[in-house]
């Protein structure tokens, strides 16, 4: 079960290094909205080619055209924008009203979604391993959140700073899903990519923040390699130094902090993480410890000592030295 080609494609998707593609030189700057907080979306159909953006099929305020991928992209771009504006008063990804653009039906059975510095791009999956990549709101929000990290911290996509970059996208991706469902931390599933794995694949999603390393165990995909503690940190040359693997450690720290604090995770814990990524003192090559210290500082500054203590304990429980 699972040809070599399928296994290679699946592994490539699981370590989707395309996530943070470099800005394409010479491209005009994306248009911006002049009214703060105003949502502007454009959805294109790439027609199973790799030519971007493709044909415009839905723009802001236009009704559905009956294409489920178009509608999911449109809706989930909107909810992500709404989340950042209402939760953190952030005006789109760049905080300057960036218009949100997405292209669906990219490539032939393309098994990925990515943010290319200008727009979102979604493949359809092959239906055997992965479903369409618009299906999971947290995956959509994960990729969009790379735009936030890129414009604020510019964390280098390598080793610990790269794993932080990935983890921040998982954190905000999960928070967008919880915000959409109005779930408190104790009611959330803390799975990234629920619904993305095709029928017959043994797994709940791509990653688990509550139990890193348990998201999937399948003959084609292999076993989820994420650690939950620094003692199991994976040293590897692959995946830009394990950015999609070791992100399990800061992911679990966020889960522990949010669970201890209770209520809506995007409030106390979420704000501490958001304020930390926006802190100008965060170095581009920051390691887990440097980021952790900022989350504690900002947690106390905004929400008080109890929040700082819960965040401190969360990082200590995953073995990050403070």
From TrEMBL:
<keyword id="KW-0378">Hydrolase</keyword>
<dbReference type="InterPro" id="IPR001570">
    <property type="entry name" value="Peptidase_M4_C_domain"/>
</dbReference>
<dbReference type="Pfam" id="PF01447">
    <property type="entry name" value="Peptidase_M4"/>
</dbReference>
<feature type="active site">
    <location>
        <position position="143"/>
    </location>
</feature>
<feature type="active site" description="Proton donor">
    <location>
        <position position="244"/>
    </location>
</feature>
<dbReference type="InterPro" id="IPR023612">
    <property type="entry name" value="Peptidase_M4"/>
</dbReference>
<dbReference type="InterPro" id="IPR013856">
    <property type="entry name" value="Peptidase_M4_domain"/>
</dbReference>
<comment type="similarity">
    <text>Belongs to the peptidase M4 family.</text>
</comment>
<dbReference type="GO" id="GO:0004222">
    <property type="term" value="F:metalloendopeptidase activity"/>
</dbReference>
<dbReference type="InterPro" id="IPR052759">
    <property type="entry name" value="Metalloprotease_M4"/>
</dbReference>
<feature type="domain" description="Peptidase M4">
    <location>
        <begin position="66"/>
        <end position="150"/>
    </location>
</feature>
<comment type="function">
    <text>Extracellular zinc metalloprotease.</text>
</comment>
<dbReference type="GO" id="GO:0005576">
    <property type="term" value="C:extracellular region"/>
</dbReference>
<dbReference type="Pfam" id="PF02868">
    <property type="entry name" value="Peptidase_M4_C"/>
</dbReference>
<dbReference type="GO" id="GO:0006508">
    <property type="term" value="P:proteolysis"/>
</dbReference>
<dbReference type="GO" id="GO:0046872">
    <property type="term" value="F:metal ion binding"/>
</dbReference>
<keyword id="KW-0479">Metal-binding</keyword>
<keyword id="KW-0862">Zinc</keyword>
<keyword id="KW-0964">Secreted</keyword>
<protein>
    <recommendedName>
        <fullName>Neutral metalloproteinase</fullName>
        <ecNumber>3.4.24.-</ecNumber>
    </recommendedName>
</protein>
<keyword id="KW-0645">Protease</keyword>
<feature type="domain" description="Peptidase M4 C-terminal">
    <location>
        <begin position="153"/>
        <end position="320"/>
    </location>
</feature>
<keyword id="KW-0482">Metalloprotease</keyword>
<dbReference type="InterPro" id="IPR027268">
    <property type="entry name" value="Peptidase_M4/M1_CTD_sf"/>
</dbReference>
């Amino acid at each position: 079960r699972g040809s070599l080609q399928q296994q290679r494609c699946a592994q490539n998707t699981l370590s989707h290094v395309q996530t943070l593609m470099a800005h394409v030189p010479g491209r005009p700057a994306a248009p911006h909205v002049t009214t703060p907080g105003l949502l502007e979306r454009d959805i294109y159909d790439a027609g199973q080619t790799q030519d971007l953006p493709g044909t415009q099929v839905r723009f802001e305020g236009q009704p559905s055209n009956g294409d489920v991928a178009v509608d999911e992209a449109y809706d989930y771009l909107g909810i992500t924008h709404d989340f950042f504006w209402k939760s953190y008063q952030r005006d789109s990804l760049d905080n300057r009203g960036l218009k949100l653009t997405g292209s669906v039906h990219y490539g032939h059975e393309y098994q990925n979604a990515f943010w290319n510095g200008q727009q979102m791009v979604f493949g359809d999956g092959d239906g055997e391993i992965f479903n369409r990549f618009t299906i999971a709101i947290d995956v959509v929000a994960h990729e969009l959140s790379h735009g936030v990290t890129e414009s604020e911290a510019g964390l280098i996509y390598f080793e610990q700073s790269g794993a932080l970059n990935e983890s921040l996208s998982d954190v905000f991706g999960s928070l967008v899903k919880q915000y959409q469902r109005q779930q408190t931390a104790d009611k959330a599933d803390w799975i990234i990519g629920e619904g993305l794995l095709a029928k017959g694949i043994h797994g709940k999603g791509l990653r688990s923040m509550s139990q890193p390393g348990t998201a999937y165990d399948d003959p084609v995909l292999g076993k989820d390699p994420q650690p939950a503690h620094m003692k199991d940190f994976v040293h590897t040359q692959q995946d830009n130094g394990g950015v999609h693997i070791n992100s399990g450690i800061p992911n679990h720290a966020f889960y522990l902090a949010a669970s201890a604090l209770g209520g809506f995770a995007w409030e106390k814990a979420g704000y501490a993480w958001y304020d930390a990524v926006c802190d100008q003192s965060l170095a581009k090559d920051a390691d887990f410890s440097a980021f952790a210290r900022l989350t504690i500082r900002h947690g106390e500054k905004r929400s008080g000592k109890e929040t700082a203590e819960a965040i401190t304990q969360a990082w200590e429980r995953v073995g990050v030295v403070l």
